[in-house]
Structures are given as C-alpha cells and as structure tokens.
Amino acid sequence: MSTPNTVQNKGAVTTKDRDVIRVGQIKFTNALPICHFLDKTHPNIEFYPGAPTELNRWLAEGTVDVGLISAYSYAEHADEYVALRGLSVTSRGPVGSIFLFSKRPIEELDGRVVALTMMSASSINLLKVLLAEKGLKPTYIDRPSNLPAMMEEADAAVLIADDALYWSVQDHGYYMYDLGEEWNRMTGHSMTFAVCAVPKRLLETNEEKVREIHRMFLESKRMGLANMNAIFARAAQMVGQEEEFWRTYFGKLIYDLDEDLAVGADAYFAAAHRHGLLPKPVKVELWGDDK
Predict the structure, then answer these.
(1) What's the pLDDT at 197?
(2) Using CA atoms, how far apart are residues 52 and 39, in angstroms rounded to an integer?
(3) What span, in angstroms and rounded, lies between the C-alpha atoms of 241 and 8?
(4) Distance of CA 4 to the CA centre of its chain
(5) What's the confidence (pLDDT) of residue 17?
(6) Comparing 21-92+191-287 with 98-187, is the CATH topology the same?
(7) Domain 98-187: what homologous superfamily?
(8) Which of 279, 106, 276 is nearest to 183 (CA)?
C-alpha cells in the first residue's frame, strides 16, 4: 500500500497539536461529484487521495482526521466513528463500477477460486455476503487489481472503480455481475459503498472544525452535481470514454446519506454480521446537518 502522496506522512497527530485537518478523499472517478470541487487551496486542510483500503487504514491509524472510507470499514469502527450526513457513494440497484467477472455463472462458483481486489472492503465483503446467501462457499484469494492476472489463478474476480469501469466495456468474454444490482435484487435495499467518517474523538476536541469540513464537502458536492459536464470531462481525462458513458454511469449513483439510505447500509451490516464478517451488528450513526 502507498502512503499519502500530497504531503509527508508524519504519523498520527491530534488536532490539539496542530490546526491543520488532514482529509482523506477517494481518488477514483466514482467520488468526483463529491471531491472534484473541494477547495484544495484551504490553508488549514491537507488532502490525502487514496484507494478505499488506504483511506480505511489511514483513518483508523490517525494518519488522516476525516475522510471518505469504505462503509464496511465504518462498520468495523462503528463505536469510534460517526458518518457525516448527506455524503456517501450509494446505489439503489446497479452501481456500474463494482463487478464480479466470472468464467462461469455465479451459481456455479461453489468450491471455486475467487480473486478479490486489494483496493476494497465494502465490495469484497458484499460479494462474500451475496455468495453466502446463495449457499456458495468459494475459496477467496487477495490479488492486485489486474483482471488477466487474476483470471489466470481464479474462476472469478472482483474489480472496483476505474479498473472495473475499464474492463466492463472490454471484449473479455466473462460473465459480469454488478454487485449493487445483485444486492438490490436479493434484498430490495440500496447499497452504500462509502461514507464520510469522522472519529468521535475529533468531535469532542474540535467540533467546529468538523462542521467546517462537513460544509466544505457538502458545498463541493453541490457544485459537482450542478456542474456535471465538468465531472464528465474530468472522468474522461482519467479513464477515457465519451460523455454519454459518464452520464449513464453517474446517473446510477447517489451521493446523499440520510435515514432512508441508512436502512440499506444497516441491512448490509446485519448480513455481514450474520455471515461472520463483522463481530457484532452495528448501525449507521449520522451526524450533522446536510442543509
């Protein structure tokens, strides 16, 4: 795993020791409507772009103070974190960038090898839930996100974000399953893949700074959703594809987080606990005002 590449990684520093707040942001296209218009010139904020698993680790170890992380990682630290209201990466059906690629129908994966991307927590555990609910018990291996290499070792592979987007439009010949769609079909619920999490200790020591960060993220999201042509253009620079591709893709995603969407997240956490992936059942604790 890499370390934050925008500033020197100095380890865990509390807000009592410095005024600067270190903010983690997802570096992939799926978070552009939230992150693209963040004020990168703010004198008291340092930004740390990373993959979800990197952001999960940085927040847990204190390398960043707040940030977008995997919903699954939030659940692992539910006693320590709150989720900022109005901010998530969610779908109510197809998500468009989290896929299982498989050499055979999903129902035939019992006892087979499934390669899991090392960049995700929510998605790989969602797959484990989906297959367990079907009574399937494959062998899981963790691998870098390289589909051809993964499929040399496995019968199926999970990719997320820009890697998944790229391979979703290639002529690869594999069965392809959208995990957001599979979850919605199975449960009827939305699926929240990422939330903006804040440690409760930061709220206790610097609540006003958290409010400032919250307002900044919400304003960036407002600007992003109001200027989607700029988002499409940036996504095309990052990954390629035409505007219509991105219009369709971003049309699948929900960037809010409220009590209604939390129901889907809570259902996912409950299923993860039921299948032994979380030590206890947890629920999303929302914080702040999204107006």
Answers:
(1) 97
(2) 21
(3) 34
(4) 17
(5) 44
(6) yes
(7) Periplasmic binding protein-like II (3.40.190.10)
(8) 106
Angle between helix 259-274 and helix 122-133 axes, rounded to 10 deg: 60
- Tokens describing residue 176: 């392809």
CA atoms within 13 A on the CB side of 109: 30
C-alpha 229/C-alpha 54 separation (Å) is 29
pLDDT at 3: 46
User: Do residues 115 and 158 touch, judged by C-beta distance below 8 A?
Assistant: yes
Residue-range domain boundaries for the chain: 21-92+191-287, 98-187
What CATH number was assigned to the domain covering residues 21-92+191-287?
Answer: 3.40.190.10
**3-state class percentages of the chain: helix first, strand second, coil last, to nearest 5:** 45, 20, 35
CB 179 within 8 A of CB 94: no
Residue 178 and residue 91: Cα distance in Å, rounded? 11
Amino acid at residue number 276: G
Coil, helix or strand for 108? helix
| Strands of the sheet with 156-160, listed across from one edge | 139-143, 113-117, 156-160, 98-102, 175-178
Q: Do 281 and 269 contact (CB within 8 A), yes or no?
A: yes
pLDDT averaged over consecutive 10-residue blocks of the chain (291 residues)? 41 51 93 94 90 95 94 97 98 96 97 95 97 97 96 97 93 96 98 97 92 94 98 95 95 97 98 97 93 69
- What predicted TM-score, i.e. pTM, was given to this entire model? 0.91
Residue 255 has φ and ψ, to the nearest 5°, of -110, 15
Predicted pLDDT of residue 1: 37
Structure tokens at 168: 């979703």
pLDDT computed for residue 44 by the predictor? 86
What pLDDT does 268 receive? 98
Which ranges of the chain does DSSP label H, i.e. alpha helix? Answer: 32-35, 52-61, 71-76, 122-133, 147-153, 161-168, 179-187, 200-226, 228-239, 243-250, 259-274
